[in-house]
TrEMBL record:
Pfam (any one): CHU_C
Keywords, sorted A to Z: Signal
Keyword Signal: yes
Gene source species: Mucilaginibacter straminoryzae
Domain of life according to the entry: Bacteria
InterPro entries hit by this protein: Ig-like_dom (IPR007110), Ig-like_fold (IPR013783), T9SS_type_B (IPR026341)
Domain Ig-like: 27-109
Protein name: Gliding motility-associated C-terminal domain-containing protein
Signal peptide (UniProt feature, chain positions): 1-21
């Protein structure tokens, strides 16, 4: 039985002519919309293409199995005559009037016209955490969504619609290496990005829309400029200042000849700069985009060499000891040898002449000699210097006053014993009536002013012991403090 069924099957599809078999091909019909996609208001035109049928054919078009249209290989659905919905099923039965063979076409569903709606474009900052912050040396990505003017399918758009995208910054079309990516180096704060879309399709050959605008928040690179105090003297303290713009919590790195110098400060000073040294400053801004650096202009050290002015004096008297009427010569040794003036002083009163040498035979015990050297030359610091003071010493009898009046009237306000100047190791002590030390000095100072720990002592009798040296008996006695 299986053999008979197989043979029967074969007889259906194969015919025999003598000893040779001939293949029989079944007829078919394929229908399609010729004007797809169909624009609003246009008729829907469906074409039938039969295969393996003769030329004397009859066409029967059907909608949902109900005969429609005319005996034609073309079926036109006019919106004013036939109301069709996407759920309707359209097919065509083609009959060969000679052989009687029939073929039913494929079925078309969702046959409809395009529906127009106003196109629009929407753009947005793309990427995680992207808020429109434009950073230097980085790209900002802007995504886009485009709604076309008709309800095209993806296939429709790929085959039947042409469109162009033009990215714009402040209304000006910009060129980009990759669409939607913007160079952070070219964007400025407040710039507005938009997208212009031009659509060209079958139903409408030209339509253009512009998207919403995105506002850029640009983080500018910092700038720094340095200036100096204008010092033209090499070797003096030179002051530099850095002025920064567009920097957030900046840090400063000063450079001298490319090497780090100074501190993290907008100000830099140095007295060790040499001629032709180059000073600059690098600033780092701690911005939202991370560290941003800027390097300042360069300032080259130039000008004249500077000199440090100083002066010391010496006397011809051995250890500054003289006798009454002795001639003493003082010599000023100044470090700067340029254009200078000398002014000598004895006890702060000007004496002598404009000379590095001063000679006097009128000096006495306790006189203080000094010299001031002044110059108006540039690049000399300081321009006025004062020497050390030399105190004249003489061996004189030690006469100790037995009273003084520290009342501030300028007369006998201190208990002074000038001859002690000749005894730098002498020890002077003053006691109150209870034996407590209220004043003590080694060597001669400037006398006692009647105070203890900065406070005036009461009027009364006090007692002193003065030890001049190990060879001389101490001086003892009392003195009265009066007001």
């Amino acid at each position: 039985m299986p053999y008979i069924r197989l043979l029967f099957c074969c007889l259906i599809f194969w015919g025999f002519s003598g000893s040779q078999a001939t293949a029989r091909v079944l007829p078919s019909v394929f229908i399609f919309i010729t004007n797809y996609p169909v624009c609003p208001g246009e008729p829907i035109i469906i074409k039938a293409t039969p295969s393996d049928l003769g030329t004397n054919l009859t066409y029967q078009w059907r909608i949902n199995g109900v005969a429609k249209g005319t005996n034609s290989d073309t079926f036109t659905i006019d919106a004013t005559m036939i109301n069709i919905t996407p759920d309707d099923i359209i097919d065509c039965v083609v009959t060969d009037n000679v052989t009687g063979q029939q073929a039913t076409s494929n079925k078309l569903t969702k046959v409809e016209r395009l529906v127009y709606s106003a196109p629009y474009a929407e753009i947005f900052f793309a990427g995680v955490g992207n808020t429109g912050l434009a950073c230097k040396n980085s790209l900002l990505f802007v995504g886009s969504y485009i709604h076309f003017n008709y309800n095209y399918s993806i296939a429709d758009i790929n085959l039947n619609v042409k469109y162009t995208l033009e990215w714009m910054v402040n209304g000006v079309v910009v060129q980009q290496p990759v669409a939607g990516y913007f160079d952070g180096n070219t964007l400025k704060n407040g710039d507005q990005i938009t997208l212009r879309v031009t659509i060209s399709g079958k139903c409408k050959p030209f339509e253009q829309v512009t998207s919403n605008a995105l506002t850029i928040t640009a983080v500018p690179s910092p700038t720094v400029a340095i200036s100096s105090d204008g010092s033209a003297c090499v070797g003096l303290v030179a002051q530099y200042k850095a002025t920064v713009t567009d920097a957030v919590s900046p840090t400063y790195q000063w450079l001298v000849n490319g090497n780090k110098a100074g501190t993290n400060s907008p100000n830099f000073s140095s007295s060790t700069l040499a001629l032709n040294d180059v000073v600059s400053c690098k600033v780092t801004s701690n911005s939202q985009c991370g560290p941003l650096e800027a390097t300042s202009n360069q300032i080259t050290v130039s000008g004249a060499q500077s000199y440090v002015n100083s002066v010391s004096i010496s006397s011809s008297a051995v250890n500054n000891f003289i006798t009454e009427g002795q001639t003493v010569t003082f010599t000023a040794n100044n470090s700067y040898k340029g254009n200078v003036n000398f002014q000598w002083y004895v006890n702060n009163l000007p004496v002598g002449n404009n000379s590095p040498i001063f000679t006097s035979s009128n000096l006495t015990l306790g006189d203080k000699v000094s010299c001031t050297v002044t110059t108006t030359d540039n690049c000399v610091v300081p321009q006025t210097v004062t020497s050390n003071r030399i105190t004249i010493l003489m061996i004189k009898p030690i006469v100790i006053p037995n009273a003084f009046t520290p009342n501030g009237d300028g007369i006998n306000d201190k208990w002074t014993i000038l001859p002690l100047l000749a005894y730098p190791q002498s020890l002077t002590q003053v006691f109150n009536r209870y034996g407590a030390v209220v004043y003590q000095s080694v060597g001669y100072t400037d006398g006692w002013d009647g105070t203890f720990n900065g406070k005036p002592l009461p009027v009364g009798v006090y007692y002193y012991i003065i030890r001049v040296d190990d060879k001389t008996p101490p001086f003892r006695g009392s003195l009265s403090l009066l007001r």
